[in-house]
Design brief:
Blueprint: H1 3-8, H2 11-14, E1 23-25, E2 50-53, H3 72-81, E3 87-89, H4 103-112, H5 127-135, E4 148-152, H6 155-165, E5 168-172
Parallel strand pairs: 1-5, 2-3, 2-4, 4-5
């Protein structure tokens, strides 16, 4: 169970805009590089210096620790655009306390070449742990949360976390596996 999501959902009562994405794309292959979730005039464009990626159903089949084949070229382009500590995977499965010995995180890092955050609080509450990662990685160039884009397929975890952090959000509307319900409410 994701206690963080359960507790943070009550914030939506007073501020429902927390789960509104800055940008929506159909799937991972529609990610424009370099990332720029805002539209409009040039002076309104964000200064995205780092990207946080959700794993399950974003760029990987849920429960698998590798990039979904049809998304590999886009994933490699994203790695090139945001190298080293400028790209971070934050999952509510790999890298959490539910990942014994962080074995899934290690396998995911090996298969993708991208660091996986080890975090004790699940999304949407792990924003402080993400900010600490980027603060401790000077080559990320991140000086403020507004220089981070969060890419994920969950409104109540990924998008809400970006809003709570003061970061930008890119919502992947159709994940690797299509959801059958009207609203994607899975917390994990």
């Amino acid at each position: 169970m994701n206690i963080s999501a359960t507790l943070n959902v009550f914030k939506l009562i007073t501020n429902p805009a927390l789960c509104l994405p800055h940008h929506t794309i159909p799937n991972f292959n529609h990610l424009n590089l370099p990332l720029s979730p805002a539209s409009g005039k040039k002076e309104q464009q964000p200064d995205i210096r780092a990207v946080v990626l959700d794993k399950d159903n974003c760029f990987a089949i849920p429960e698998e620790n590798q990039v979904y084949g049809p998304y590999d070229a886009k994933f490699q382009a994203l790695r090139a655009a945001y190298p080293r500590s400028k790209l971070l995977i934050v999952s509510n499965s790999a890298g959490t306390n539910d990942d014994p010995g962080y074995k899934n995180a290690e396998l995911l890092e090996k298969n993708t070449g991208v660091p996986v955050l080890r975090h004790s609080t699940k999304k949407p509450g792990c924003g402080p742990e993400i900010l600490s990662y980027f603060r401790d990685s000077p080559d990320s160039g991140v000086a403020h949360p507004s220089q981070i884009a969060i890419v994920g397929d969950r409104l109540f975890t990924d998008v809400m976390m970006a809003s709570m952090m003061g970061s930008w959000s890119v919502w992947i509307k159709d994940g690797v596996v299509k959801e059958k319900g009207l609203v994607n409410l899975r917390w994990a």
